[in-house]
């Protein structure tokens, strides 16, 4: 059964795999607010957030000057072809995300006293008193969007929010 | 034998030779392709003052602070070693790695080091240990050195770690991590500017520059928000950044540095400055927003006001900005509380700040103000920032690499070939 799973994972297109963690998380929660928070974290870690469609397969021209390869070739000249071939092959696959690697590491199975990545997370704040800033203009906000939970301060900012951001990241 | 010291961060690589005070180079750990080009650039090419990186596509080997793409890392290292004329096959390597690195990533790293680059030997170190080592060596009679204890707060590219160090080793069970760093701050700044004035979502390099030049930590957010609403000269936070036009300028710059520096005239901690004009300010503020909607996009500049302090604010109060995490002060308290009670007062008295994000003006002052009320009254709180928060880890590595025992601490290529990654790795942890 395990093998079935990994095979189907391999068959997934690169695009699907890239979007997968976000989708999985979003599907796991059925309310828009949770989805919006997850999408927000995802957005803040994105390397090229401006690109609507992420180019996944543009690695083929990621090669640099040839002499860079020299350093690696010096002591293993014979393996050079295979390495290049391997690199090209790997480039075809989308890089895996940290969360995929984390999932594979199965840290949950370790005993509670073992310090891990998961146990080092600082966790939510203890105080519930929060200051709220308008997500559009940054000033203090008194209103919350009923659909996604985002804060705004005025009708004007609400309109900008509705037009440009509200539920933008939610499938 | 030469020891190559590599502080291989998610944002920057600091590279040099063990025993030297300064690294040979500091480069972004990424490839970037300018819009006008089909080729990706890396290393020193990205540092060229004439290279136009406007809207460049960025690819990074790191995700959330961990190495996820060894092939990309290999490309970047190959270029780096060749430009620095380093020969891995004749050198040892001291490499930093993030706390709680995953075994699968460690295996890939070892493959890179030994199989691809053929280093003779490897030592893997964590940032808190190196920072502690460096600070202890600078003040041999100071508390950090005598107690062999410190609390290293590393505000890096992908995350913030509060890491207790005891007997010169990072105490893993005490480490607390916030999942946001310099990259999230830059992206937050992009969002704020893009929704308010001009679309800069694609401008990673430019926005890093804006953040470094113009952001600062507020000591009183409510007061500063009021000041940021003011018009004209009363708004001492307002300043203008000029975007590159691709013709006259390939890099952006602060239009009037004197204007940008006016926030420093604020008397620290004063509250309720000029609060009387609040209502008219609200109106003005709305008019201003209307003007922004009509902004001329051909005009190559934008102005900033409250963005300047709301961006670093995220480190102190992530929850206020929609991230459900404790802020930096609480992160430190939780790290200290997970250590033995005897250690706690010493840790609060030897907090060391490192990492690029601690360079925001007034960072340490703000942290102290937030931390003091959370710490028992009879404990002292002492926070010091590293002399160079970007190079601190590298310098610690350089120091360690020049110690007489260094060779014996390493795993050699022969040992790696015989024992494999997993068993070799055990040596680096006590
Ligand atoms: Zn608003
Ligand atoms: Zn909404």
Automatic annotation (TrEMBL), chain A:
Which processes are annotated in GO (biological process)? chromatin remodeling
Q: Which UniProt keywords apply?
A: Metal-binding, Zinc, Zinc-finger
Key word Cell membrane present in the record? no
Q: Give me the stretches of Acidic residues compositional bias.
A: 55-69
Q: Where is this region: Disordered?
A: 1-20, 44-89
In this chain, composition skew of type Basic residues spans 73-84
Q: Which InterPro entries match?
A: Vps71/ZNHIT1, Znf_HIT
Q: Per the record, GO CC terms?
A: nucleus
Q: What is this protein called?
A: HIT-type domain-containing protein
* Species, as recorded: Daucus carota subsp. sativus
Q: What is the lineage of its organism?
A: Eukaryota, Viridiplantae, Streptophyta, Embryophyta, Tracheophyta
TrEMBL record, chain B:
Q: What is its main location?
A: nucleus
**Native source organism of the sequence:** Daucus carota subsp. sativus
InterPro entries per the UniProt record, alphabetical = Actin, ATPase_NBD
Q: Where in the cell is it found?
A: Nucleus
Give the family, as the similarity comment puts it: Belongs to the actin family. ARP6 subfamily.
- Which GO biological-process labels does this protein carry? actin filament-based process; cell division; chromatin remodeling; megasporocyte differentiation; negative regulation of flower development; regulation of chromatin organization; regulation of DNA-templated transcription; response to osmotic stress
This chain's protein is named: Actin-related protein 6
Instruction: List the GO cellular component terms.
Output: Swr1 complex
Taxonomically, the superkingdom here is: Eukaryota
Q: Which UniProt keywords apply?
A: Nucleus
Please name the Pfam families in this protein's record: Actin
């Amino acid at each position: 059964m395990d093998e079935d799973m990994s095979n189907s994972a391999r068959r997934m297109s690169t695009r699907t795999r890239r979007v997968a963690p976000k989708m999985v998380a979003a599907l796991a929660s059925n309310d828009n607010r949770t989805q919006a928070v997850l999408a927000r974290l995802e957005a803040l870690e994105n390397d090229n957030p401006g690109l609507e469609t992420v180019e996944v397969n543009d690695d083929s021209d990621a090669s640099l000057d040839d002499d860079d390869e020299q350093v690696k070739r010096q002591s293993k000249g014979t393996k050079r072809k295979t390495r290049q071939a391997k690199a090209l092959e790997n480039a075809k696959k989308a890089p895996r995300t940290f969360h995929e690697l984390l999932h594979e590491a199965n840290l949950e199975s370790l005993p509670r006293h073992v310090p891990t990545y998961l146990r080092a997370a600082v966790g939510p704040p203890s105080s519930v008193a929060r200051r709220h800033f308008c997500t559009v203009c940054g000033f203090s906000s008194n209103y919350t969007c009923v659909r996604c939970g985002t804060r705004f301060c005025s009708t004007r900012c609400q309109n900008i929010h509705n037009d440009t951001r509200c539920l933008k990241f939610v499938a | 034998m030469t020891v190559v010291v590599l502080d291989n961060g998610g944002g920057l690589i600091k590279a040099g030779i063990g025993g030297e005070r300064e690294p040979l180079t500091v480069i972004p750990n990424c490839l970037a392709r300018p819009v006008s080009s089909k080729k990706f650039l890396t290393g020193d090419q990205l540092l060229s003052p004439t290279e136009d990186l406007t809207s460049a596509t960025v690819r990074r080997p790191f995700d959330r602070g961990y190495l996820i793409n060894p092939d990309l890392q290999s490309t970047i290292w190959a270029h780096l070693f060749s430009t620095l004329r380093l020969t891995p096959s004749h050198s040892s390597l001291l490499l930093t790695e993030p706390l709680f690195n995953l075994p699968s990533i460690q295996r890939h790293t070892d493959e890179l080091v030994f199989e691809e680059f053929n280093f003779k030997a490897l030592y893997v170190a964590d940032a808190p240990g190196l920072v502690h080592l460096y600070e202890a060596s600078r003040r041999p009679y100071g508390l950090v050195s005598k107690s062999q204890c410190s609390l290293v707060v590393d505000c890096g590219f992908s995350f913030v770690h509060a890491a207790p160090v005891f007997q010169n080793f990072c105490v893993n069970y005490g480490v607390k991590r916030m999942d946001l760093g310099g990259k999230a701050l830059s992206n937050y700044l992009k969002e704020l500017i893009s929704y308010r004035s001009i679309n800069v979502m694609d401008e990673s390099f430019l926005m890093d520059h804006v953040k470094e030049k113009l952001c600062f930590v507020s000591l009183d957010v409510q007061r500063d928000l009021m000041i940021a609403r003011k018009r004209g000269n009363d708004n001492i936070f307002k300043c203008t950044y000029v975007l590159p036009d691709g013709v006259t300028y390939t890099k952006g710059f602060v239009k009037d540095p004197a204007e940008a520096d006016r926030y420093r005239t604020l008397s620290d901690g004063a509250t309720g400055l000029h609060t009387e004009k609040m209502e008219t300010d609200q109106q003005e503020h709305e008019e201003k927003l209307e003007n922004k909607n009509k902004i001329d996009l051909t005009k190559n500049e934008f102005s900033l006001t409250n963005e300047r302090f709301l961006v670093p604010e995220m480190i102190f109060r992530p929850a206020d900005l929609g991230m459900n995490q404790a802020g930096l002060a609480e992160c430190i308290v939780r790290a200290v509380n997970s250590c033995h009670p005897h250690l706690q007062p010493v840790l609060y008295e030897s907090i060391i700040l490192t990492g690029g994000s601690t360079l925001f003006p007034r960072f340490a002052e703000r942290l102290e103000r937030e931390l003091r009320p959370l710490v028992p009254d009879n404990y002292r709180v002492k926070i010091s920032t590293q002399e160079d928060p970007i190079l601190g880890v590298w310098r610690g590595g350089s120091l360690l690499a020049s110690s007489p025992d260094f060779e014996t601490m390493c795993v050699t290529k022969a040992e790696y070939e015989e024992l494999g990654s997993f068993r070799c790795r055990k040596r680096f942890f006590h």
